[in-house]
Design a protein that fits this description.
With 215 residues, the protein is mainly beta. It has helices at 16-20, 59-62; strands at 9-12, 26-31, 38-47, 51-55, 74-80, 88-99, 105-109, 114-117, 125-134, 142-149, 153-159, 171-177, 184-197, 200-207, 212-213.
Length: 215
């Protein structure tokens, strides 16, 4: 099916997407053809039961894959249940319309059925670990808190300015004092999900390398 075939896959009704998705979150779009080209974009909006509105990525971000976005093109759309469990959800869709001005977006049909699959093999533990996030060692250090953590990833919350909607990068580093060893650690992380509530930007990270002792 749209996400994967496994024992922990569940079928949901048409209201599930609206209840579990958030405007601005990452969306993975796969062209349903033999080559299975795909690209990442963001959810701009939706009308429950009718359509989704998604950004058309630039050539720099997605190459020429966007040229395959033509009317009635079959798609497989996957994203994360941002508001609730963090599970992956996927469904089939089709291109319903394309706008190039004033902003490049396309309309995709609303899912008739949604599949969900649990991503985490281990449960994250709620916590409140002071942490800084940065792209480069000599760059800006952005303070916040790790609000849950597991062996595979964590959620990092920070207060941002009103005009900030999301990170525009795919990886960041986190530095914090490990609560078990009391040693300062730095971890390279991949951005998996983002959502903004008020002035708080909440970022789901997957750890991409083992913990490295800082000092």
């Amino acid at each position: 099916m749209a996400s994967t075939e496994s024992s922990n896959t569940k079928i949901r009704d048409i209201n599930f997407f609206a209840q579990n998705a958030a405007i601005g979150q990452f969306i993975s779009v796969e062209i349903a053809n033999a080559n299975r080209e795909s690209f990442k974009t963001h959810l701009v909006g939706c009308k429950t039961g009718s359509y989704l509105i998604l950004e058309i990525p630039s050539v720099l971000d997605a190459g020429n894959v966007k040229d395959m976005l033509v009317l009635d093109r079959k798609l497989i759309i996957r994203t994360i249940c941002e508001r609730t469990t963090g599970d992956c959800m996927g469904f089939y869709s089709t291109v319903q319309g394309i706008l190039k001005s004033p902003y490049p977006v396309f309309f995709a049909s609303y899912p008739e059925e949604v599949e969900t699959r649990e991503l985490r093999t281990e449960k994250r533990q709620p916590t409140a670990i002071a942490c800084v996030m940065f792209k480069h060692e000599n760059g800006e250090k952005m303070p916040g808190f790790i609000t849950d953590i597991s062996e595979g990833g964590c959620r990092f919350d920070l207060v941002v300015q009103e005009e900030v909607v999301k990170l525009k990068v795919t990886s960041m580093s986190l530095r914090y004092v490990d609560p078990v060893t009391n040693i300062e650690m730095t971890r390279l992380c991949e951005v998996c999900s983002q959502r903004k509530i008020g002035t708080t930007l909440s970022i789901g990270f997957a750890f991409t390398q083992a913990m490295q002792q800082t000092g």
